[in-house]
Amino acid sequence: MTKWMTKWMTLVLAVLVLAGCNTINGMGKDIEQAGEAVQKSSK
Question: What pTM was computed for the model?
Fold first, then answer.
């Protein structure tokens, strides 16, 4: 049963890490777009 639990926890951790990276990547794109909008409006 401990092998099953270890595999399950590894899977959960991997999903959380991948979801976190995706969220951070999306947030970076949003910030970049906001910065570009500010630059365009200041010209």
Answer: 0.50
The amino acid sitting at 10 is T
**Tens-digit pLDDT string for the chain (43 aa):** 688 888 888 988 888 777 777 777 777 888 888 888 888 887 6
Helix (H/G/I), strand (E/B), else coil: 43: coil
Compute the Cα dihedral for 17, 19, 24, 25 and give only its sign.
Answer: positive
H helical segments located in the chain: 2-42
CA distance 43 to 39: 7
Nearest to 18 by CA among 7, 10, 28: 10
